[in-house]
């Protein structure tokens, strides 16, 4: 790919974890909107759709400080959207060293690179910094993570808050969507596939989240860049739902037999890492300051369904 981005006058946005679900949606939105130039970075080779053009891709493992500093030196981005993270909560619990390296050490390198370029640093965090005793949470609520993933994200938030230039922390929860060559599944894809294969699926009805369409999250991140908004912002959907509710809505949308969906609760459902029960995020601040307005969960499933049908990640 030609590096004409270096000569472009548009502000540059460097995205970490661009092979991931959110990363791909951010690159796509930048290409569609045309306001920024995108530098997509990822661990290993590019896994974005082959037909996408007009952005640069750099292999950049965030745990490798030298690699990170070199990429920042080449591009000197105005904005950095730091989406790369070890996101599998149960793996984080058992592979603590690796989790710390990806989530904390890696972010230190991104902070160093951003500082050298005085970039506006936008960091992706999680509802799992909370204990789930009294959600949904706003930006002022007190964190108290229950699992190791949440602890590393909270520790990283504190590092970001000491960044000397513009910083924004974006807290989100239960992100769903589909993207090209994904390394992880999410609730809608998992339920759809399981029911199509006539499996019995167990879903908890005592955990609450405000599920977030990946496109909405990408839009929220870019609204932050557009407005130069700093501080902490919750960016998520608005409906407080349990995974059981989400599974039923998914079955109904795709016309699948809901008999395969069995209700359970967290005390019976063995998960390696403890999950906060009632989280979910209050998004009034993002609505007021950014003009952010997420889709309903049903509309979100509709968008995803269209993309699955067309295997279309362009529109
Ligand atoms: N998904 C959710 O439900 C959720 C909820 C709350 C917060 N968040 C936060 O939102 C952000 C985006 O999540 P997502 O849904 O897009 O997750 P994702 O699909 O798992 O994407 C994360 C990306 O980070 C990359 N990555 C991991 N370690 C890396 C490293 N050392 N160097 C470079 N890249 C690395 C992964 O690379 P590979 O593809 O090579 O594995 C992956 O592409 C994350 O910061 C996450 O903590 C997500």
């Amino acid at each position: 790919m030609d590096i004409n981005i270096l000569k472009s006058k548009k502000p540059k946005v460097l995205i970490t974890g661009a092979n991931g679900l959110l990363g791909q949606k951010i690159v796509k939105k930048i290409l569609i909107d045309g306001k920024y130039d995108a530098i997509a970075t990822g661990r290993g080779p590019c896994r974005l759709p082959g037909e996408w053009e007009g952005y640069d891709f750099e292999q950049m493992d965030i745990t490798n400080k030298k690699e990170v500093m070199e990429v920042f030196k080449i591009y000197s981005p105005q904005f950095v959207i730091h989406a790369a993270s070890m996101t599998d909560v149960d793996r984080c619990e058992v592979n603590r060293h690796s989790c710390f390296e990806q989530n904390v050490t890696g972010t230190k390198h991104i902070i160093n690179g951003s500082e050298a370029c005085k970039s506006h640093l936008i960091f992706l965090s999680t509802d799992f910094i909370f204990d789930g005793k009294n959600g949904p949470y706003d930006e002022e609520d007190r964190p108290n993570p229950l699992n190791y993933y949440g602890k590393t994200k909270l520790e990283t938030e504190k590092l970001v808050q000491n960044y000397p230039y513009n910083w924004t922390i974006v807290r989100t929860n239960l992100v769903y969507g589909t993207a090209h060559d994904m390394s992880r599944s999410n609730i809608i894809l998992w339920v759809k596939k399981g029911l199509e294969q006539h499996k019995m699926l167990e879903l908890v009805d005592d955990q609450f989240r405000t599920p977030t369409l990946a496109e909405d999250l990408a839009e929220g991140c870019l609204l932050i860049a557009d407005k130069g908004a700093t501080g902490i912002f919750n960016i998520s959907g608005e409906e407080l739902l349990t995974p059981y509710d989400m599974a039923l809505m998914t079955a109904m949308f795709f016309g699948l037999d809901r008999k395969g969906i069995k209700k359970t609760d967290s005390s019976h459902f063995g998960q390696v890492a403890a999950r906060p029960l009632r989280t979910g995020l209050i998004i009034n601040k993002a609505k007021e300051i950014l003009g952010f307005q997420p889709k309903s969960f049903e509309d979100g499933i509709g968008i995803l369904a269209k993309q699955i049908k067309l295997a279309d990640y362009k529109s």
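DSSP finds ten helices and eleven strands in the chain. The mean pLDDT is 95.
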